[in-house]
């Protein structure tokens, strides 16, 4: 647009006031760390939401544990597979609940991250500080892609372990074998699997989804939620009408379902340990495509933040 | 060297020209008042200086290009937009901690010192503070940054007169020294008259007046003239005539004080009166040029 005229500006005045000295003490890692901290101050739901889910889960679980044990007693005669299912069901549900919360929190965060600061005009304050748009956008991308999955998987694992201890206490009181319970649930393996699943599928594989939401958040002048969801729907509809195909929808579904890890991720607690295929995952072409898409979205978002002011 | 230097600074929003090729030079240690009607281009000019908007033409702030190097320029530039830009969710203690974390020139102890003089508590969130307190907080933050340029865009908008007075007092007493530069825009011109060292009027994207306050006091005079002397006084080509209590007050640009004193008592006009005179001449179009500008056209720019 006007890069040429801007380029001449540097020659306008040769000498530079001692801002050089100050600029050199701008530490990027330090600014990045403080930017992350700032995001957690502003968006406390990032940790409050999974904490609430954990607390609520434990509360409900402790209330119903007696019922669970009684039900198990009734099904004692049944075959071991159903037995295992009855035991593991609450654990499955809780893990799925945490993952749903993680995605919701991530999407909610992204849509507001670069839009909210323009809506409340605080962008004028943030831009009056020596923090570059690149640091700002990358720190905001780190929250849904790394921080939220890490935090959620940690809280999820802690919750599951507390559930197991409550379960064990109930078993020992009612005279069932605690070691049998532990052998059935195999929580150590399950913990590893949950962390693995959240970090591969929900962090790396879903990164382009969050990057898209961040881009919309940086771009939209209003209603970022609509702008985030309408274009994909429109593209899918257009494709269907014009070519009568559903490639785009298939692509989206594959991305959302978790790609090569997707199908196996859903029923993990039943047979834990057999789905860990990190190499297959890391070298899948979909992952690389996703990273490229992520990088493009974030680069545009950085540029947009430079141009955009309050809405 | 100049703190801000612009040549042919231009910015258009579609067909609406906000800045129409401005040339500007602000030296270090000045307090410049940028005065203009709504939509004159003041905020656009400040946004360009702060690296918030792209522009055409050449602009250098502290020797750097503000659009391409905003983060570096902002090490040495502070900015208060208007009262509403501090994020409402943040706690006072958090904003202090954050600034200490990211700003190489922020002195937290200094900011806390300023805050103890106010009734702002560190545990409060910005949303819990009154409008005046938010401005006090922002001023305390900005004064604790060892910057070379401070830009204030309507900093006291919507504040009562006590807060406004206090704002400029602490700015002058606790912050300003002659190595710093301040640019301020405001509609409450009269409160700034004794604060400024330089004055600039801007209208429809152009600078219509640019002079130092020293020049201002030797160049602009206002005389209340008796009706019988009105014709003689008007022969000296006042730039504006207005009626006060039925008598004519004439405003002169560049006319010798001695010559004017025969008509009555000579005053330095208020900035507000001069502003109205210069702007209404612009609107009328007949007396579109002040003497200063005529001089400028004939002899080149007056520096």
* CATH A-level architecture of the largest domain in chain B: 3-Layer(aba) Sandwich
Percentage of residues assigned to helices of chain A: over 70%
Elements of chain B, N to C (H/E) = EEEHEHEHHHEHEEEHEHEEHEHH
Low-pLDDT regions of chain A: 1-24, 263-273
**Tally of discrete structural domains of chain B:** 2
Secondary-structure element order of chain A, N to C: HHHHHHHHHHHHHHHH
Q: How many domain modules of chain A?
A: 1
Question: How is the secondary structure organized here?
Answer:
The complex is a heterodimer of chains A (311) and B (303).
Chain A: H1 3-9, H2 19-24, H3 28-42, H4 45-74, H5 80-113, H6 116-119, H7 123-126, H8 133-174, H9 178-185, H10 187-205, H11 207-219, H12 224-243, H13 247-257, H14 262-266, H15 278-282, H16 285-307
Chain B: E1 2-13, E2 16-27, E3 31-35, H1 42-49, E4 56-61, H2 70-73, E5 77-80, H3 92-102, H4 108-116, H5 131-143, E6 149-153, H6 161-175, E7 181-185, E8 198-203, E9 206-212, H7 213-219, E10 220-225, H8 230-234, E11 240-244, E12 247-253, H9 257-261, E13 266-267, H10 271-284, H11 291-299
Parallel strand pairs in B: 3-7, 3-8, 5-6, 6-7
Antiparallel strand pairs in B: 1-2, 1-4, 8-9, 10-12, 10-13, 11-12
Helix pairs in contact in B: 4-5, 5-6
Could you give a short description of this structure?
Chain A has 311 residues and is an all-alpha fold. Chain A has helices at 3-9, 19-24, 28-42, 45-74, 80-113, 116-119, 123-126, 133-174, 178-185, 187-205, 207-219, 224-243, 247-257, 262-266, 278-282, 285-307.
Overview of this structure, please?
The complex is a heterodimer of chains A (311) and B (303). By secondary structure, chain A is mainly α. Helices cover 79% and strands 0% of the residues of chain A. Chain A has one domain (28-307). In chain A, helix 11 runs parallel beside helix 16. Chain A is globular and about 70 Å long. Chain B is built from 11 helices and 13 strands. Chain B has helices spanning 42-49, 70-73, 92-102, 108-116, 131-143, 161-175, 213-219, 230-234, 257-261, 271-284, 291-299, and strands at residues 2-13, 16-27, 31-35, 56-61, 77-80, 149-153, 181-185, 198-203, 206-212, 220-225, 240-244, 247-253, 266-267. In chain B, the strands form 3 sheets. Chain B has a 6-stranded mixed beta sheet with strand order 5-6-7-3-8-9, with helices on both faces. A 4-stranded antiparallel beta sheet of chain B has the order 11-12-10-13. In chain B, strand 1 and strand 2 form a beta hairpin. The radius of gyration of chain B is 21 Å and the shape is globular. Mean pLDDT of chain B is 86; it is low at 285-303. Classes of the chains: A mainly alpha (311), B alpha/beta (303). At the A-B interface, helix 1, helix 2, helix 3 and helix 7 of A face strand 1, strand 4, helix 2, strand 5 and helix 3 of B.
């Amino acid at each position: 647009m006007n890069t040429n005229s801007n380029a001449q500006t540097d020659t306008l005045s040769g000498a530079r006031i001692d801002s050089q000295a100050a600029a050199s003490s701008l530490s990027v890692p330090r600014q990045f760390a403080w930017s992350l901290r700032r995001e957690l101050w502003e968006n406390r739901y990032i940790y409050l939401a999974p904490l609430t889910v954990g607390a609520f889960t434990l509360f409900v679980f402790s209330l119903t544990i007696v019922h669970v044990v009684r039900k198990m007693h009734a099904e004692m005669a049944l075959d071991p597979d159903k037995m295992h299912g009855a035991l593991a069901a609450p654990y499955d549900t809780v893990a799925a609940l945490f993952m749903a919360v993680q995605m919701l929190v991530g999407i909610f965060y992204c849509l507001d991250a670069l839009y909210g600061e323009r809506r409340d005009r605080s962008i004028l304050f943030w831009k009056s500080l020596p923090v570059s748009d690149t640091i700002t956008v990358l720190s905001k991308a780190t929250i849904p892609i790394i921080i939220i999955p890490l935090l959620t998987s940690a809280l999820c694992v802690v919750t599951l372990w507390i559930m197991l201890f409550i379960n064990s206490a109930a078993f020992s009181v009612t005279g069932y074998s605690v070691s049998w319970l532990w052998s059935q649930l195999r929580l150590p393996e399950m913990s590893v699997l949950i962390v693995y699943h959240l970090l591969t599928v929900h962090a790396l594989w879903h990164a382009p989804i969050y990057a898209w939401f961040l881009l919309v958040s940086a771009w939209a002048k209003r209603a970022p939620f609509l702008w985030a969801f309408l274009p994909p729907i429109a593209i899918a509809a257009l494709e269907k009408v014009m070519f009568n195909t559903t490639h785009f929808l298939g692509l989206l579904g594959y991305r959302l379902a978790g790609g090569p890890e997707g199908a196996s991720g859903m029923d993990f607690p039943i047979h834990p340990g057999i789905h860990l295929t990190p190499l297959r995952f890391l070298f899948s072409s979909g992952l690389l495509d996703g990273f490229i898409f992520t990088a493009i979205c974030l680069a545009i978002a950085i540029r947009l933040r430079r141009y955009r002011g309050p809405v | 060297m100049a703190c801000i230097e612009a040549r042919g600074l231009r910015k258009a929003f579609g067909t609406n020209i906000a800045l129409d090729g401005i040339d500007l030079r602000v030296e270090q240690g000045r307090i410049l008042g940028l005065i203009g009607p709504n939509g004159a281009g003041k905020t656009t000019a400040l946004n360009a200086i702060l690296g918030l908007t792209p522009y055409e033409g050449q602009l250098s702030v502290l020797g750097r290009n503000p659009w391409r190097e905003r983060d570096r320029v902002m090490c040495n530039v502070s900015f208060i937009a208007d009262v509403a830009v501090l994020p409402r969710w943040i706690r006072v203690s958090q904003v202090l901690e954050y600034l200490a974390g990211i700003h190489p020139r922020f002195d937290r102890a200094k900011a806390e010192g300023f805050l103890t003089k106010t009734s702002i508590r560190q545990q409060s969130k910005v949303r819990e503070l009154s409008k005046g307190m938010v401005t006090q907080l922002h001023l305390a933050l900005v004064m604790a940054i060892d910057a070379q340029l401070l830009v204030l865009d309507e900093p006291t908008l919507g504040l009562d007169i006590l807060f406004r007075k206090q704002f400029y007092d602490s700015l002058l007493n606790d912050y300003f020294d002659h190595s710093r530069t301040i640019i301020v825009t405001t509609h409450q011109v009269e409160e700034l008259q004794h604060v400024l060292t330089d004055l600039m009027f801007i209208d429809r994207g152009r600078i219509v007046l640019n002079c130092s306050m020293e020049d201002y006091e030797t160049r602009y005079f206002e005389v209340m003239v008796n009706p019988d002397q009105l014709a003689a006084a008007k022969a000296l080509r006042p730039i504006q005539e207005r009626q006060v209590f039925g008598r004519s007050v004439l405003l002169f640009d560049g006319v010798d004080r001695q010559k004017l004193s025969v008509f009555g008592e000579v005053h330095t006009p208020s900035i507000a009166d001069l502003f109205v005179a210069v702007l209404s001449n612009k609107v009328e179009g007949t007396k579109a040029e002040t003497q200063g500008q005529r001089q400028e056209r004939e002899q080149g720019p007056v520096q």
